[in-house]
Design goal:
Layout (H helix, E strand, L loop, with lengths): L20 H10 L8 E3 L5 H20 L4 H9 L4 E3 L4 H11 L3 H10 L4 H4 L3 H6 L6 E2 L16 H18 L8 H22 L8 H6 L10 H11 L11 H4 L2 H32 L4 H31 L9 E6 L5 E6 L1 H7 L9 E5 L8 E5 L12 E4 L2 H13 L4 E5 L5 E2 L4 E2 L6 H5 L7 H6 L7 E10 L5 E7 L12 E5 H7 E7 L5 H9 L6 E3 L7 H4 L6 H8 L7 E3 L1 E9 L7 E7 L8 E4 L7 H10 L9 H4 L14 H8 L6 E6 L7 H7 L2 H11 L21 H5 L3 H18 L7 E9 L5 E7 L4 E5 H7 L1 H10 L5 H20 L9 H33 L6 H6 L5 H10 L8
Parallel strand pairs: 6-8, 7-16, 11-14, 17-21
Antiparallel strand pairs: 1-2, 3-12, 4-5, 6-15, 7-8, 9-12, 9-15, 10-11, 12-13, 13-14, 18-19, 19-20, 22-23, 23-24
Helix pairs in contact: 1-2, 2-3, 9-13, 9-14, 13-14, 27-33, 32-33, 33-35
Enzyme class: hydrolase
Subunit structure: Homohexamer. Binds to nucleic acids. Binds single-stranded DNA and RNA with higher affinity than double-stranded DNA.
Pfam family, one: Chromo_shadow
């Protein structure tokens, strides 16, 4: 179940809708050889034309009746024909089509409406919205919390399974909320899939590379998709761990690159194994003395020895990208608070955790009921070579009706058990409202058409298949006990998905687009369980690996229904949008005077990506702003308008960003997650400092930029990366300038990062400008040397700044002792009403006071130099390096001296 991407969607009238009459006619005419000319015409009313209509109608009637479609629709379609049959698009016919296209008032209204916006949005059925309420007569007593988020990965089947199992764990351990580690199972799944692909490559080493089966297997050998039986294999072999033991990483949530590099190597390994087999068989054949079976056994052993080396490389790639998970039998400690707030600690292994902490759940106690109307019911279905663990249990389905599936689902919900199910989520569903209903969109009325493919035909033609796995956690029954709608727990996060991450599926949608439910044996008919228990035999329908019923496990595409929905609705958004997760702090004057900026965290990204945004760019996150200002202290420098009306504003917390602002964040790192909010992730850079500075400040700052070894980056009018140079442009520059430009562009990328602790190599010095502002000279890991205001460095790399100051601290313990002794003496003197001399350490204390006086004189001298520098700046004079160094206020030595001089004197004590 790997892809939730949408496709051209059928209409609301599905199984009962009549088919396109022309399809049968085209099939009949295509079976006869075409005439010599491209087209031929028969006059209306001619006996030959009438006979052709009658023959065509009779021919199609047989096909139509078998598919349950009325003959009247066929005759109506043929009556509309112009009487011409042609192989090419005839311009004369196009004119007739054009006259008919907007003939009806409904077509004219649809044309006026649909070209202005997204089709799905325009055709949303209001009655479907009002009837699909998130209210249910039966729900689970204990709900799984929090709502999970698979992000940009196709691991829905792992999330659905762990969401089912975690309810049992929460009951067993008395937990308020809990998640099992999906990335733990995903790690071992990819490793097992890699091994299975290489074993298949050994078995199929003699078939052509374009063989349909091997061609399908090599398409996506280690994709994210999977099936119920496959996750059971993983749990039985590797067990389960809490999410805190092996949490998500960036690459587990954004698996595209890991999948790509592993797939690349696996394809390379497959060719190696093929070549090795040929060479080994050839050598053994020349040596002689072995039977064919012995030669084959020796060859397989040699190939598996080579495979072991290959698998070692695969493991290395995954361990580096995803982290090293616990071994199945290694002990770990799970510390937690239970629902009563009591601390608990559990020491166990992954295998024991799966066996002992999952309540009544067992991998052997349930099976998949599927509805494949192409095949006979009450039969076992299996998919050839569809597995992750080589030699593990195969994927098995028991084929039955949707009525039986729904009865079993209702029985499970009433028993307090969530139900894993597989469906085609992209059909007639809407993420934001969470509605899954065949009547949701009015395509038929708007276009004046009937889309009448049956469920079996949609499967056979590739129009529909299992694309996503979710969990049913509730059902609403009518007065007669029949299901009306189902509560669906998704794994796309809580924000922007239905009601707090839960969707509403109608009973009609279940009939058409649900293909699989996993039911425990006690809640299904005994004869269906017996079919499953019997296993694969001569009566089993074994389907090829490329059959649509295996699509849940073999899909290549990454699941992102939000991205699919956006694409379907015509939005230009797919990759570089970001959604604010929380507002952490605020500041005034960071970008402009009296303008408020917000420090925000981004949904799906760690604290290293936190960044400052303008108030106007966060304005659409109104709910968050309102909540923030209810609790946050207001800045003293704020005007009344700032935050005055803000608390009263409300609305949706997600907004969309312009392409240019999205480019700012994507320049530092490729971040691909769909449907993110519109905030410009702009950071305060030296360019911004120069833009906001006065003429006098700008002159001083530019002089500082001329400091040897530090690049001078001129400010630009806009803050976008419009001045990014391509490699071809860089090659046309002289080497020194090209290297400077590379460092400049790298530094701009650093501006977009939230945390600089890992990219700043060192802080060279800290100096003051003429207005007393602290400026920090940063040296980055790539060699870039840039100056920033201290306020920027405080947020970006506070530890580096602290290290700089601590490395320059010079303590004088004798002076400190003298100060303490002087304080004691002064206290004693005061109590006796007498004045006593300072103790023996007074000479050192006196020296310290002299140093203070000397430091004060130096400071006054520096201030005079600063004044001269300022006057020169007013005259338009640009300071030279020597002038600037002479006017430097805080050298390293000065800082050391000031730290020493901060000790209290005896008189101060």
């Amino acid at each position: 179940m790997g892809s939730a991407s949408s496709r051209p969607q059928p209409t609301s009238s599905l199984a009962s809708a009549p088919s396109r009459a022309s399809s049968g006619f085209e099939k009949a005419s295509s079976s006869s050889p075409p005439p010599s000319s491209a087209t031929f015409s028969l006059p209306t009313g001619h006996h030959a034309a009438d006979r052709l209509h009658r023959i065509s109608a009779e021919a199609f009637a047989g096909t139509s009746s078998r598919r349950g479609r009325p003959l009247s629709d066929v005759n109506d379609s043929l009556e509309k024909s112009s009487g011409r049959a042609y192989a090419t698009v005839d311009l004369g016919a196009v004119k007739a089509w054009d006259a008919d296209a907007l003939a009806k008032p409904t077509s004219q209204l649809a044309a006026i409406t649909l070209h202005n916006g997204a089709i799905n949005t325009s055709l949303r059925n209001r009655s479907s919205e009002t009837s699909s309420q998130h209210v249910y007569s039966h729900t689970l007593k204990r709900q799984g919390l929090p709502v999970t988020n698979q992000k940009s990965s196709g691991r829905c089947w792992l999330f659905a399974t762990t969401n089912v199992v975690r309810v049992e764990v929460m009951e067993k351990l008395n937990l308020k909320d809990f998640e099992l580690s999906q990335s733990y199972l995903s790690f071992w799944d990819k490793l097992e899939k890699s091994n299975t692909f290489l074993e298949n490559s050994i078995e199929l080493a003699d078939v052509p590379l374009d063989d349909r089966v091997f061609g399908f297997l090599k398409t996506a050998p280690t994709n994210d998709g999977g099936q119920w039986d496959m996750v059971c294999n993983l749990i039985e072999k590797y067990g389960l761990v809490p999410k805190s033991v092996f949490p998500e990483s960036y690459n587990s949530s954004n698996s595209n690159k890991v999948n790509w590099i592993v797939t690349l190597k696996l394809r390379e390994y497959a060719l190696e194994l093929r070549e090795l087999k040929k060479a080994t068989m050839s050598s053994l054949s020349r040596a002689g003395g072995l039977t064919k079976e012995q030669m084959q056994a020796c060859t397989v052993k040699a190939l598996r020895m080579r495979k072991d080396v290959q698998m070692q490389e695969v493991y290395r790639i995954m361990a580096i990208s995803l982290g090293v998970p616990p071994m199945p039998n290694d002990e770990f400690t799970f510390d937690y608070y239970d629902a009563d707030g009591k601390f608990k600690s559990l020491k166990t292994t992954p295998v024991k955790f799966a066996e002992e902490q999952t309540g009544s759940f067992t991998t052997q106690g349930a099976c998949s009921l599927v509805n494949d109307p192409r095949r006979a019911f009450n039969k076992l279905i299996s998919i050839d070579r569809l597995q992750n663990v080589w030699g593990g249990r195969p994927v098995l389905y028991v084929n039955t009706s949707t009525t039986q599936m729904k009865d079993s689902v209702v029985a499970s919900i009433k028993a307090g058990l969530p139900v894993f199910f597989g469906c085609d989520v992209g059909q007639f569903s809407e993420t934001a409202s969470g509605i899954m209903d065949t009547d949701l969109f009015g395509y038929e009325l708007a276009y004046g058409i009937k889309l009448g493919l049956t469920k079996a035909e949609r499967i056979e033609l590739g129009e529909s298949s299992m694309t996503h796995a979710m969990v049913i956690t509730g059902v609403h029954l009518d007065d007669k006990g029949k299901p009306v709608r189902y509560r669906v727990e998704n794994s796309w996060g809580a924000d922007g998905v239905g009601k707090d991450g839960y969707m509403c599926m109608t009973d009609a949608w279940f009939d058409e687009f649900v293909y699989q439910v996993v039911i425990r044996k006690e809640h299904m008919p005994s004869h269906l369980w017996s079919i499953f228990q019997k296993g694969i035999d001569e009566d089993t329908d074994v389907l090829p690996p490329y059959d649509p019923m295996g699509s849940l496990a073999s899909s290549m595409a990454i699941e992102s229904a939000r991205g699919a929905e956006s694409e379907d609705e015509g939005e230009e958004t797919p990759e570089d949008e970001y959604e604010i997760d929380a507002i952490l702090s605020h500041d005034s004057g960071r970008f402009k005077k009296d303008e408020v900026a917000y420090l925000v965290s981004w949904k799906g990204y760690g604290p290293e990506h936190n960044s400052w945004v303008r108030e106007e760019d966060a304005e659409n996150a109104k709910d968050m702003l309102s909540d923030y200002w209810k609790n946050a202290p207001k800045l003293k420098t704020m005007t009344k308008s700032v935050g005055g009306s803000r608390a009263a504003k409300g609305g949706k917390a997600a907004s969309r960003t312009s392409n240019a602002s999205r480019k700012e964040r994507s320049s530092s790192q490729t971040l691909s997650q769909s449907r993110r909010s519109s905030v410009r992730a702009t950071s305060t850079s030296m360019d911004t400092v120069l833009q906001q500075a006065s003429r006098r400040e700008r002159t001083a700052l530019k002089a500082m930029h001329k400091r040897p070894g530090f690049d001078s980056f001129e400010p630009t009018e806009d803050e976008e990366d419009n001045d990014v140079l391509s490699e071809a442009q860089l090659k046309r520059l002289d080497p020194e300038e090209a290297n400077r430009q590379r460092r400049r562009m790298d530094a701009k990328r650093y501006h977009r990062l939230g945390d600089w602790e890992q990219v700043v190599k060192q802080i060279e010095t800290v100096e003051k400008d003429e207005n007393g502002k602290l400026l920090v000279f940063c040296v980055f890991e790539n060699g870039s040397r840039v100056i920033y205001e201290a306020s920027v460095v405080h947020y970006r790399c506070p530890q580096k700044l602290l290290n700089f100051y601590e490395s320059r601290l010079r303590f004088n313990p004798k002076a400190a002792d003298a100060a303490a002794a002087a304080a004691a003496a002064a206290a004693a003197s005061a109590s006796e009403g007498k004045t006593k001399a300072a103790p023996d350490g007074s000479e050192e204390q006196s020296a310290t006071l002299q140093d203070d006086a000397r430091g004060s004189e130096e400071t006054q001298g520096d201030a005079a130099k600063d004044t001269a520098m300022e006057e020169g700046a007013d005259a338009g004079d640009t300071n030279s390096d020597e002038d600037f160094d002479a006017g430097d206020t805080n050298t390293n030595e000065d800082l050391e001296a000031q730290v020493q001089h901060d000790e209290p004197t005896a008189e101060e004590s």
